[in-house]
UniProtKB/TrEMBL annotation:
Entry superkingdom: Bacteria
Family, as annotated: Belongs to the multi antimicrobial extrusion (MATE) (TC 2.A.66.1) family. MepA subfamily.
Organism: Martelella lutilitoris
Keywords, ordered alphabetically: Antibiotic resistance, Cell membrane, Membrane, Transmembrane, Transmembrane helix, Transport
Example of a GO MF term: antiporter activity
InterPro entries: MATE_fam, MATE_MepA-like, MdtK-like, Membrane_Transporter-Flippase
Residues spanning the membrane: 28-50, 56-83, 104-121, 133-152, 173-196, 202-223, 244-269, 281-304, 325-355, 367-390, 402-420, 426-446
Ranges in a coiled coil: none
Membrane topology listed for this record: Multi-pass membrane protein
GO cellular component: plasma membrane
Name this polypeptide is given: Multidrug export protein MepA
Cellular localisation: Cell inner membrane
Any one Gene Ontology BP term: response to antibiotic
């Protein structure tokens, strides 16, 4: 179905599910992999042309950077769930209103970030730097530029999820890839050629985001998308705020959870590894990069599943939403098996791509193998969490999205070392993955009892609860 020639057509409501699923997922996965490449290249530019202290400054404000991303995800992810179901139901005015309501909420959140920085940003960064004025100054320059330019981040995040929900993941990915490559180019100019340091990194990011926003505005003005840049809907701008926040909260808290888990691991490593602290942190840093890269395709699969499920559930075509979930679960299961096998048999050679120190390679191999010992469970659980978010079940989605981090992983990072020594830190990850099986079973049982859905997920005409 050609949505470019017929903006009102919905590509998610017809055609074979499996080809549609992979066609939707492929460009999103590509976008995320390219975005991951940018983070590596940006770090190289800062390390080579500015120095290690620049990297330290950027790392210092990582919690604040994660707060920015978490807020942007809070709005865009929650909006995407509402938008997909309204588009699927043929409610164009409601879909347009959801986007405009989210845009207003995003601008309010951006203003809140700016106010926070003005009130507490510099004192907080000064405390984090341990009194190092030069380091604090670099960190403040970097994060202040991103905070005061945050409206761009919020708008791009909202519009990106809008394009995905409209059935245009290819357009979203094309814009994202081009902008990411432009970001690399901007950073090379601003950091390497002009010598602007950490400010150049932040300005390069904002320049690329502005370029993306211009591209989206041009697309909206062309009239080739179901959602317009802005139009009267007869609804207040605040009409979708409550549902947007409720549905977006799980994804937002997941980002915060990643930051908290990392901080907890660093604290535990400091307590249990003693003289091997530096080597272990270096090995864990490599392991984290590897885990991030294998996680990105999984996010693409999950987003594709959400988009198709949300539209078909909103259109009351439950057979298609059910089959989409099956395809997502099976794909995720096989992906998890592949990741687990690769790290089991090839973790050493992969680690050797980053460093040539035998001890660091051995430590990285050991850490990765333990952390991914139950990775086969990760993908299906994530797909199920995304499914519940897509059909508007915020509580079930929240429990599945956040349970691993907040109920299991963070407590186990501190508890397991008392039973298994320092290796207990790494055992927390697979233990949490296995513990999630019980939590997922409980959620599915509860949802099945409440809605009559078969196995707690497969809805029928009389069983689905429309919101």
């Amino acid at each position: 179905m050609d949505t470019s020639s017929n903006p009102g057509a919905n590509p998610y409501l017809s055609g074979p599910i499996a080809p549609l699923f992979f066609k939707t997922a492929a460009p999103i996965v590509l976008l995320m992999l390219v975005s991951g490449l940018f983070t590596v290249v940006d770090a190289i530019f800062l390390g080579v042309y500015v120095g290690p202290r620049a990297l330290a400054a950027v790392t210092l404000v990582f919690p604040l950077f994660m707060a920015l991303n978490a807020l942007a995800t809070l709005v865009s992810s929650g909006m995407a769930s509402i938008l997909a179901r309204r588009l699927g139901a043929g409610d164009h005015a409601g879909a347009q209103s959801a986007v405009q309501s989210a845009t207003a909420l995003a601008m309010l959140a951006a203003l809140g970030l700016m106010a926070f920085y003005l009130a507490a940003g510099r004192p907080l960064i000064g405390w984090l730097s341990g009194g190092d004025a030069a380091l604090a100054a670099m960190a403040s320059t970097y994060i202040a530029l991103l905070f005061f330019g945050s409206p761009l981040q919020f708008l791009i995040s909202t519009q990106g999820d809008t394009l995905r929900s409209e059935g245009r993941p290819g357009t979203m990915a094309l814009i994202g890839v081009l902008v990411t490559l432009a970001n690399i180019g901007f950073n090379f100019v601003f950091i390497a050629l002009l010598g602007w340091g950490v400010a150049g990194s932040a300005i390069g990011t904002l320049a690329a985001q502005l370029l993306a926003l211009v591209a989206v505005v041009v697309l909206r003005l062309s009239g080739r998308t179901p959602i317009r840049l802005w139009e009267r809907t007869g609804k207040p701008l605040t009409e979708a705020w409550r549902r947007t926040l409720a549905l977006g909260l799980p994804s937002s808290l997941s980002l915060i959870g990643i930051s908290l888990s990392t901080a907890c691991i660093l604290v535990s490593v400091k307590a249990w590894f003693g003289t091997d602290y530096d080597l272990t942190i270096a090995a864990y840093g490599i392991a984290s990069r590897l885990l991030t890269f294998v996680f990105l395709p999984l996010m693409g699969l999950n987003f594709a599943c959400q988009s198709i499920v949300g539209n078909n559930y909103g259109a009351a075509i439950y057979e298609r939403s059910n089959r989409t979930l099956v395809v997502g679960l099976v794909t995720g299961l096989f992906y998890g098996l592949i990741v687990q096998a690769v790290f089991l048999f090839a973790a050493g050679p992969i680690a050797a791509l980053f460093v040539d120190d035998p001890e660091t390679i051995a430590a990285t191999t050991h850490i990765v193998r333990i952390i991914t010992a139950a990775y086969v469970v990760v993908a299906p659980v994530m797909v199920l969490a995304g499914y519940f978010q897509a059909i508007g079940k915020a509580v079930s989605a929240g429990v599945m999205s956040l349970g691993r981090t907040y109920f299991f992983n963070i407590p186990l990072i501190f508890l397991l070392p008392f039973l298994f020594g320092s290796q207990g830190i790494w055992m927390a990850a697979p233990s949490s993955d296995l513990a999630m099986l019980g939590l997922v079973a409980a959620v599915l049982w509860f949802h099945g009892r409440r809605t009559g859905a078969r196995w707690g997920v497969f809805h029928q005409e009389a069983a689905a609860v429309m919101r």
